[in-house]
Amino acid sequence: MTDQTFLDKLKTGWNEGKFVCVGLDNADLQFNKTIVDQTFDLVVAYKPNIAFYEAAGANGLQALKETIDYIKEKSPDVPVILDAKRGDIGNTNEAYTKAIFDNLQADAVTVHPYLGKESLEPFLKRVDKGIFVLLRTSNPGAGEFQDLEVESTKEPLYQVVAEHVAKDWNTNGNCGLVVGATYPEELKKVREIVGDMPILVPGIGAQGGDLKAVLENGLDSNNQGLIISLSRSIIFAPDPREATLKIHQEIVDFLKP
Amino acid sequence: MTDQTFLDKLKTGWNEGKFVCVGLDNADLQFNKTIVDQTFDLVVAYKPNIAFYEAAGANGLQALKETIDYIKEKSPDVPVILDAKRGDIGNTNEAYTKAIFDNLQADAVTVHPYLGKESLEPFLKRVDKGIFVLLRTSNPGAGEFQDLEVESTKEPLYQVVAEHVAKDWNTNGNCGLVVGATYPEELKKVREIVGDMPILVPGIGAQGGDLKAVLENGLDSNNQGLIISLSRSIIFAPDPREATLKIHQEIVDFLKP
User: Fold this and answer.
1) Which of chain A's residues have a Cβ under 8 Å away from the Cβ of B61?
2) CATH of A6-255, one of 3.20.20.70, 3.30.70.20, 1.10.40.60, 3.40.50.360
3) pLDDT tier at A1 (50, 70, 90 boundaries)?
């Protein structure tokens, strides 16, 4: 383990030209170890989604803990984003931060914005961690509320959330955003709003998002700022390293001057 | 265990004049058993918040499972609402339903609306369960997004969510809503929108909500429809039964013709 913050670790990866994040969505420690062994030198982060571990009961959660421990042992510079999509009132969020940051030792977490900044303070005050707020999710029905136009500014809700996070929530510099690869136009708009904040982009691969559109619309002013997350299309590929390398190389090629 | 649906169990409780729900927010099985022993004949539901169990690690989640098992053994007609505030994309929500409904055997769950109906189908298709959608939460900063006026109807977001749930999401008759006791005016508005749907009302007790205002604004057309949830002010009371009985009796007195 290192004393780097989550953002330090991200920047280390970006400076080495790494943007791919592997979604470890399978509650099998040995399986995950194999994926990590094959990919740790290529990725900017790992992103286990806790739902798949919870579905496997106590053994699943033990596998999650040991998977995170293994990543930290194998490759301490690669941060772990726990995709948990949490969000409760303040004293309950204190309990979630204990579970996610202190017990599981995740470097970052995804959260729902619906209860507002005040509820999320237990997350936001953890200056060394990363707090990724859901803005525009990758699912087909994401627009039901996220696209609702808000009266005061005539903007869709996801843009209003983006503004709140960028202008008011990010005082510790530890916030990020989640925008699905399936919505590149929305990604472009979010990048305009949030400047150089990190954006986690799921939805390439099994969900059909387009890598080139993500890069064209999502890179920050340093040609960095993106965490491009793939799960099923890497971990269940015949050769996970090959699948990761393919995406990695496409990004390297895109960024060539 | 019985073959009753979640809604059947709720109605059984309401028909017996029970409206109090005890929030079992402490990951200690023996502690919870004592609370259940002291309150099971007075309550319409129990509501453990999973965050407090997650914070206690593997033992905590085992305590949650055994607490739910104990409630079902001691008092099979009293349903368990797992306060988990989940909400992810569809295939991930399948994993959450497995964890919450199949493994833990909860009768109902709380969910975030932000990803829309399409994402929540794995929950909504469980006709025998209860799906409580967050509308207006009890925390002080709840209004940051929930009160944003939406351009098309000039209504605040929480009312738009209420309309979607009542008119479009509830085709299986298994939806409920969450409205904090700390916002009685908003509760009144939600009741007008959703008709006789069940409303889970946290926020009385430690959070300062007023019981009389909740009853005046939240009861349905049958003088039922409310699940009034108290956590800290009951489970940490010197005499939890006495604390439950006091609220129960205030409700009985309010409802006297």
Assistant:
1) 58, 61
2) 3.20.20.70
3) very low
